[in-house]
Amino acid sequence: AGAKVSAHDVKGQNALLRAADGGYDDIVRLLLEKGDDVNTQDHGHRTALLIAAGNGNQKLVDFLIEKGAEIDLKDRAGMTALIHAAESGHAEIVGRLLEEGAGVHAWAEDGRTALIAAAANGHVTVFEPLFKHKASLNARDTKERTALMLAAEAGHADAVKALIAQKANLDSVDKVNRTALGWAAIEGRSEVVKLLIDARAKLDNKDVDGWTPLRWAKEKGHAEVAALLSEAGAVE
To answer: Smallest Cα–Cα separation from 195: which of 167, 158, 230, 166?
Structure first.
């Protein structure tokens, strides 16, 4: 007897999901023709569309949408196909999903939106379709951190520049009362610090420890950042 088309393995994946994950588009087509459910989910609640979007498989994403894949189903972490695509930097897929009505403001369990996920990973090419569809610039994750804060902390200067240009709030504070400038100073991101200084970010915000960006820069031994802040008139 032949194997049952829809049989699931120990991870909850059936042949359709394994084929999607491996990029075997022809097998995905065949299985859907044989009656597999395009929206079947594994134990992590991932669908073929979620998998293809995260993997950057544009052709498969297009095909699955045509076959009725639900755009905004979430995996166990609360991530949609859009968030997966944004996090991985797949701009064309992000654009297609948004055109199909994907929720630009959807958030994962940790509060990440597509814009936050893209910014944290420096995927500036993903910004354009997100901005076009009115992504919230100042949305916050569960730690109250914005896209600008995460991009600043990671040193993604191009992302910071793009967010500044879109008028993101420079002085938002997170749960530890730290700003984007504070995070950039802690991590020694001199290019980002200069961008934020030039954009007139607040220089002397104190976090929950009572420390300013300048004090953090000195404590961490980031001489170039400390010099930039001092020259701009920052105080400890």
So the answer is: 158
CB-CB neighbours of 7 under 10 Å: 9
For 153, the token pair is 């902390």
d(CA 8, CA 183): 45
State the chain's maximal CA–CA distance in angstroms: 78
* HSE value, Cβ hemisphere, 13 Å, CA-based, for 60: 28
Give residue 221's region: left, alpha or beta (phi > 0; psi -120 to 50). Answer: left
Q: Is 12 left (phi over 0), alpha (psi -120 to 50) or beta?
A: left
pTM as predicted:
0.93
Q: Which pLDDT does position 11 carry in this prediction?
A: 58
Evaluate if residue 134 carries a pLDDT over 90: yes
- Provide CB contacts within 8 A for 156, sequence distance 6+: 119, 121, 122, 124, 192
- Answer whether 108's CB lies under 8 Å from 76's CB: no
- Helix, strand, coil: what percent of the chain each, to 5? 50, 0, 50
Tell me the pLDDT band of 14, cut-offs 50, 70 and 90.
Answer: confident
Nearest to 187 by CA among 235, 211, 219: 219
Pull the structure tokens for residue 193.
């610090």
